[in-house]
Amino acid sequence: MISGLETGGPLRSEERIGWIRSGGDRVEPIPSSVLCWSSGATWRTFRIEEHTSSSGDLPQGSFTGHILALNVGGPYRVEVSWSGAPPSAEHAHLPGNFIFVPASRPLSAVWRGPATVLLVEILAGSVNPGDAVRLGPVLNRRDDFVAHLVLALRDLARLHSEPGAGYGESLCAALTEHLAGSSSAWSDRVENGHALSSTCLRRVLEFVDAHLDKSISLDALAHESGTSPFHFARLFKRRTGLAPHQFIIRKRIERARALLSDADLSIGEVAFRCGFSQQSHFTVTFRRTVGVSPSAYRRLL
After folding, report:
1. Tens digit of pLDDT for each residue in 113-136?
2. pLDDT of residue 16
Protein backbone atom coordinates (compact mmCIF):
# COMPACT_ATOMS: atom_id res chain seq x y z
CA MET A 1 0.00 0.00 0.00
CA ILE A 2 2.97 2.33 0.32
CA SER A 3 3.64 4.67 -2.57
CA GLY A 4 6.75 6.63 -3.49
CA LEU A 5 10.30 6.21 -2.24
CA GLU A 6 10.00 2.80 -0.61
CA THR A 7 8.36 1.18 -3.61
CA GLY A 8 10.34 3.11 -6.18
CA GLY A 9 7.34 4.82 -7.80
CA PRO A 10 7.11 8.59 -8.17
CA LEU A 11 4.60 10.57 -6.13
CA ARG A 12 2.54 13.34 -7.63
CA SER A 13 2.46 16.56 -5.59
CA GLU A 14 -1.20 16.02 -4.70
CA GLU A 15 -0.27 12.65 -3.15
CA ARG A 16 2.18 14.26 -0.72
CA ILE A 17 1.55 16.12 2.53
CA GLY A 18 1.57 19.75 1.41
CA TRP A 19 2.94 22.96 2.88
CA ILE A 20 2.18 26.54 1.79
CA ARG A 21 4.48 29.40 2.76
CA SER A 22 2.82 32.51 4.17
CA GLY A 23 2.09 34.99 1.41
CA GLY A 24 2.19 32.31 -1.26
CA ASP A 25 -0.26 29.89 -2.85
CA ARG A 26 2.02 27.13 -4.13
CA VAL A 27 1.83 23.78 -2.36
CA GLU A 28 5.32 22.39 -1.80
CA PRO A 29 6.95 19.50 0.08
CA ILE A 30 7.77 20.03 3.75
CA PRO A 31 11.17 21.75 3.88
CA SER A 32 14.19 20.57 5.91
CA SER A 33 13.06 16.93 6.07
CA VAL A 34 13.64 13.73 4.12
CA LEU A 35 10.66 11.60 3.10
CA CYS A 36 11.24 7.93 3.97
CA TRP A 37 7.93 6.62 2.67
CA SER A 38 4.37 7.75 2.03
CA SER A 39 0.97 6.10 1.79
CA GLY A 40 0.26 8.44 -1.12
CA ALA A 41 -3.37 8.41 -2.27
CA THR A 42 -4.22 5.03 -0.75
CA TRP A 43 -6.98 6.49 1.44
CA ARG A 44 -9.64 9.11 0.70
CA THR A 45 -9.56 10.92 4.05
CA PHE A 46 -5.92 10.89 5.11
CA ARG A 47 -2.35 10.05 4.25
CA ILE A 48 0.60 9.06 6.44
CA GLU A 49 4.32 9.65 5.87
CA GLU A 50 7.54 9.06 7.75
CA HIS A 51 10.13 11.85 7.73
CA THR A 52 13.65 12.16 9.10
CA SER A 53 15.86 15.17 9.64
CA SER A 54 19.06 16.03 11.47
CA SER A 55 17.86 19.58 12.14
CA GLY A 56 15.97 22.24 10.27
CA ASP A 57 13.29 24.86 10.25
CA LEU A 58 9.78 25.33 8.97
CA PRO A 59 9.26 28.93 7.85
CA GLN A 60 6.00 30.72 8.56
CA GLY A 61 3.26 28.95 6.66
CA SER A 62 0.47 26.40 6.98
CA PHE A 63 -0.46 22.84 6.09
CA THR A 64 -3.29 22.13 3.70
CA GLY A 65 -4.71 19.45 6.03
CA HIS A 66 -4.84 18.77 9.78
CA ILE A 67 -1.37 17.50 10.75
CA LEU A 68 -0.38 15.20 13.60
CA ALA A 69 3.37 14.59 14.08
CA LEU A 70 4.23 11.63 16.34
CA ASN A 71 7.85 11.29 17.49
CA VAL A 72 8.94 7.71 16.74
CA GLY A 73 12.67 8.38 17.16
CA GLY A 74 14.78 9.80 19.95
CA PRO A 75 14.23 13.05 21.83
CA TYR A 76 15.07 16.29 20.04
CA ARG A 77 14.76 20.00 20.75
CA VAL A 78 11.99 21.90 18.98
CA GLU A 79 10.47 25.36 19.06
CA VAL A 80 7.01 25.82 17.57
CA SER A 81 5.10 29.10 17.22
CA TRP A 82 1.54 29.74 16.09
CA SER A 83 -1.02 32.49 16.45
CA GLY A 84 -2.57 32.52 19.92
CA ALA A 85 0.03 30.16 21.42
CA PRO A 86 2.08 30.95 24.54
CA PRO A 87 5.39 32.73 23.91
CA SER A 88 7.62 30.49 21.83
CA ALA A 89 10.30 28.58 23.71
CA GLU A 90 12.42 25.56 22.95
CA HIS A 91 11.41 22.28 24.59
CA ALA A 92 12.25 18.60 24.38
CA HIS A 93 9.99 16.61 22.06
CA LEU A 94 10.08 13.19 23.68
CA PRO A 95 9.52 9.78 22.03
CA GLY A 96 5.81 8.97 21.90
CA ASN A 97 4.74 12.62 22.16
CA PHE A 98 2.88 14.38 19.38
CA ILE A 99 2.21 17.83 17.97
CA PHE A 100 -1.12 18.59 16.30
CA VAL A 101 -1.81 21.59 14.07
CA PRO A 102 -5.22 22.26 12.46
CA ALA A 103 -5.40 22.90 8.73
CA SER A 104 -4.54 26.41 7.54
CA ARG A 105 -3.21 27.44 10.99
CA PRO A 106 -0.12 29.63 10.37
CA LEU A 107 2.91 28.37 12.26
CA SER A 108 6.68 28.15 12.18
CA ALA A 109 9.11 25.69 13.78
CA VAL A 110 12.81 25.12 14.39
CA TRP A 111 14.27 21.82 15.60
CA ARG A 112 17.70 20.53 16.59
CA GLY A 113 18.97 16.98 16.70
CA PRO A 114 18.08 13.84 14.73
CA ALA A 115 14.30 13.54 14.42
CA THR A 116 12.10 10.76 13.07
CA VAL A 117 8.38 11.49 12.94
CA LEU A 118 5.24 9.93 11.57
CA LEU A 119 3.05 12.58 9.97
CA VAL A 120 -0.66 11.92 9.61
CA GLU A 121 -2.50 14.39 7.40
CA ILE A 122 -6.26 14.34 7.93
CA LEU A 123 -7.68 15.95 4.83
CA ALA A 124 -9.60 19.09 5.78
CA GLY A 125 -12.68 18.26 3.68
CA SER A 126 -13.12 14.88 5.38
CA VAL A 127 -13.73 16.30 8.87
CA ASN A 128 -17.24 17.10 10.06
CA PRO A 129 -17.72 20.87 10.54
CA GLY A 130 -18.49 20.39 14.24
CA ASP A 131 -15.29 18.40 14.80
CA ALA A 132 -13.25 20.89 12.75
CA VAL A 133 -14.35 23.73 15.05
CA ARG A 134 -13.22 21.76 18.13
CA LEU A 135 -9.80 20.84 16.73
CA GLY A 136 -7.16 23.04 18.34
CA PRO A 137 -3.36 23.00 18.25
CA VAL A 138 -1.57 20.68 20.70
CA LEU A 139 2.11 20.98 21.58
CA ASN A 140 4.26 18.11 22.88
CA ARG A 141 1.40 16.04 24.26
CA ARG A 142 1.53 12.36 25.23
CA ASP A 143 -1.57 10.25 24.68
CA ASP A 144 -1.19 6.48 24.39
CA PHE A 145 -4.44 6.10 22.48
CA VAL A 146 -3.27 8.56 19.82
CA ALA A 147 0.10 6.81 19.58
CA HIS A 148 -1.51 3.37 19.20
CA LEU A 149 -3.80 4.59 16.42
CA VAL A 150 -0.98 6.28 14.50
CA LEU A 151 1.27 3.22 14.79
CA ALA A 152 -1.61 1.01 13.61
CA LEU A 153 -2.04 3.27 10.59
CA ARG A 154 1.70 3.02 9.91
CA ASP A 155 1.62 -0.79 10.07
CA LEU A 156 -1.44 -0.88 7.85
CA ALA A 157 0.17 1.46 5.32
CA ARG A 158 3.25 -0.71 5.09
CA LEU A 159 1.24 -3.76 4.01
CA HIS A 160 1.70 -4.16 0.29
CA SER A 161 -1.97 -5.01 -0.31
CA GLU A 162 -5.31 -3.25 -0.54
CA PRO A 163 -7.67 -5.03 1.93
CA GLY A 164 -6.84 -2.63 4.75
CA ALA A 165 -8.20 0.46 2.99
CA GLY A 166 -11.59 0.45 4.73
CA TYR A 167 -10.02 -0.38 8.10
CA GLY A 168 -7.62 2.52 7.69
CA GLU A 169 -10.51 4.93 7.12
CA SER A 170 -12.13 3.64 10.34
CA LEU A 171 -8.93 4.11 12.33
CA CYS A 172 -8.55 7.66 11.02
CA ALA A 173 -12.17 8.44 11.93
CA ALA A 174 -11.50 7.21 15.48
CA LEU A 175 -8.34 9.33 15.64
CA THR A 176 -10.19 12.44 14.44
CA GLU A 177 -13.02 11.92 16.93
CA HIS A 178 -10.56 11.48 19.80
CA LEU A 179 -8.61 14.60 18.84
CA ALA A 180 -11.77 16.67 18.58
CA GLY A 181 -13.17 15.33 21.86
CA SER A 182 -9.93 15.89 23.79
CA SER A 183 -8.84 19.18 22.26
CA SER A 184 -10.64 21.42 24.76
CA ALA A 185 -9.20 19.53 27.73
CA TRP A 186 -5.69 19.74 26.30
CA SER A 187 -5.97 23.44 25.50
CA ASP A 188 -7.27 24.09 29.05
CA ARG A 189 -3.77 23.38 30.28
CA VAL A 190 -2.80 26.97 29.51
CA GLU A 191 -5.43 29.70 29.79
CA ASN A 192 -4.83 32.47 27.26
CA GLY A 193 -1.10 31.75 27.45
CA HIS A 194 -0.82 33.78 30.67
CA ALA A 195 -1.69 31.41 33.54
CA LEU A 196 -1.81 27.76 34.39
CA SER A 197 -5.37 26.50 34.38
CA SER A 198 -6.76 24.78 37.46
CA THR A 199 -6.74 21.47 35.58
CA CYS A 200 -3.12 21.93 34.59
CA LEU A 201 -2.00 22.96 38.08
CA ARG A 202 -3.77 19.97 39.63
CA ARG A 203 -1.97 17.59 37.26
CA VAL A 204 1.40 19.12 38.16
CA LEU A 205 0.72 18.96 41.91
CA GLU A 206 -0.42 15.34 41.66
CA PHE A 207 2.75 14.52 39.74
CA VAL A 208 4.90 16.14 42.43
CA ASP A 209 3.12 14.24 45.23
CA ALA A 210 3.55 10.95 43.38
CA HIS A 211 7.27 11.47 42.74
CA LEU A 212 8.57 13.17 45.89
CA ASP A 213 10.85 10.20 46.59
CA LYS A 214 12.51 10.62 43.17
CA SER A 215 14.36 13.32 41.29
CA ILE A 216 11.85 15.74 39.71
CA SER A 217 13.14 17.75 36.77
CA LEU A 218 11.77 21.00 35.41
CA ASP A 219 11.36 19.29 32.04
CA ALA A 220 9.11 16.63 33.64
CA LEU A 221 6.90 19.27 35.27
CA ALA A 222 6.70 21.27 32.06
CA HIS A 223 5.73 18.11 30.20
CA GLU A 224 2.82 17.59 32.59
CA SER A 225 1.67 21.16 31.95
CA GLY A 226 2.07 20.99 28.17
CA THR A 227 4.37 24.05 28.10
CA SER A 228 8.07 24.72 27.66
CA PRO A 229 10.27 24.58 30.82
CA PHE A 230 10.97 28.33 30.68
CA HIS A 231 7.33 29.25 30.19
CA PHE A 232 6.15 26.77 32.85
CA ALA A 233 8.54 28.13 35.49
CA ARG A 234 7.15 31.65 35.06
CA LEU A 235 3.51 30.53 35.03
CA PHE A 236 3.96 28.25 38.03
CA LYS A 237 5.53 30.98 40.17
CA ARG A 238 2.80 33.39 39.13
CA ARG A 239 0.16 30.87 40.26
CA THR A 240 1.78 29.56 43.48
CA GLY A 241 4.17 32.32 44.52
CA LEU A 242 7.08 29.87 44.50
CA ALA A 243 9.59 28.74 41.89
CA PRO A 244 9.14 25.03 41.04
CA HIS A 245 12.27 23.93 42.93
CA GLN A 246 11.23 25.94 46.01
CA PHE A 247 7.79 24.35 45.92
CA ILE A 248 9.27 20.85 45.66
CA ILE A 249 11.57 21.48 48.63
CA ARG A 250 8.62 22.70 50.69
CA LYS A 251 6.62 19.57 49.82
CA ARG A 252 9.59 17.33 50.68
CA ILE A 253 9.96 18.97 54.09
CA GLU A 254 6.22 18.70 54.74
CA ARG A 255 6.42 14.97 54.06
CA ALA A 256 9.55 14.65 56.20
CA ARG A 257 7.82 16.28 59.18
CA ALA A 258 5.00 13.76 58.88
CA LEU A 259 7.37 10.79 58.56
CA LEU A 260 9.50 11.86 61.52
CA SER A 261 6.57 11.07 63.78
CA ASP A 262 7.19 7.39 63.00
CA ALA A 263 9.92 6.36 65.44
CA ASP A 264 10.56 3.15 63.51
CA LEU A 265 11.97 5.12 60.58
CA SER A 266 15.60 6.21 60.71
CA ILE A 267 16.57 9.73 59.70
CA GLY A 268 18.26 8.25 56.66
CA GLU A 269 15.10 6.40 55.62
CA VAL A 270 13.04 9.56 56.02
CA ALA A 271 15.55 11.42 53.84
CA PHE A 272 15.36 8.72 51.17
CA ARG A 273 11.54 8.67 51.14
CA CYS A 274 11.51 12.44 50.66
CA GLY A 275 13.79 12.41 47.64
CA PHE A 276 17.13 13.29 49.26
CA SER A 277 20.02 11.15 48.06
CA GLN A 278 22.18 12.08 51.06
CA GLN A 279 21.18 12.37 54.71
CA SER A 280 23.55 15.31 55.19
CA HIS A 281 21.77 17.29 52.45
CA PHE A 282 18.43 16.48 54.03
CA THR A 283 19.62 17.61 57.46
CA VAL A 284 20.93 20.94 56.13
CA THR A 285 17.75 21.61 54.13
CA PHE A 286 15.46 20.62 57.00
CA ARG A 287 17.32 22.82 59.50
CA ARG A 288 17.29 25.78 57.11
CA THR A 289 13.54 25.39 56.52
CA VAL A 290 12.24 24.36 59.95
CA GLY A 291 14.86 25.91 62.21
CA VAL A 292 16.00 22.71 63.94
CA SER A 293 17.59 19.45 62.81
CA PRO A 294 15.43 16.40 61.99
CA SER A 295 16.53 14.60 65.14
CA ALA A 296 15.78 17.67 67.31
CA TYR A 297 12.40 18.03 65.63
CA ARG A 298 11.62 14.35 66.37
CA ARG A 299 12.43 14.85 70.07
CA LEU A 300 9.92 17.71 70.18
CA LEU A 301 7.07 15.52 68.91
Report:
1. 899 999 999 998 888 877 777 788
2. 85
For residue 113, the domain's CATH number is 2.60.120.280
Three-point CA angle 232, 238, 243, nearest 5°: 65
| 87 DSSP 8-state letter | P
Q: Is the model's pLDDT at 196 over the cut of 80?
A: no
Domain limit, last residue, from 142, 166, 187: 187
* Structural domain range at position 70: 4-187
Q: Measured between alpha carbons, how far is 274 from 20 in angstroms, rounded to an integer?
A: 52
User: d(Cα 92, Cα 44) in Å, to the nearest integer?
Assistant: 34
Q: Is the pLDDT higher at 133 or at 167?
A: 167
Query: Given its phi and psi angles, is residue 217 left (phi above 0), alpha (psi -120 to 50 degrees) or beta?
Result: beta
User: In this structure, which amino acid lies at residue 230?
Assistant: F
Q: Which helix (H) or strand (E) holds 109?
A: strand 107-122
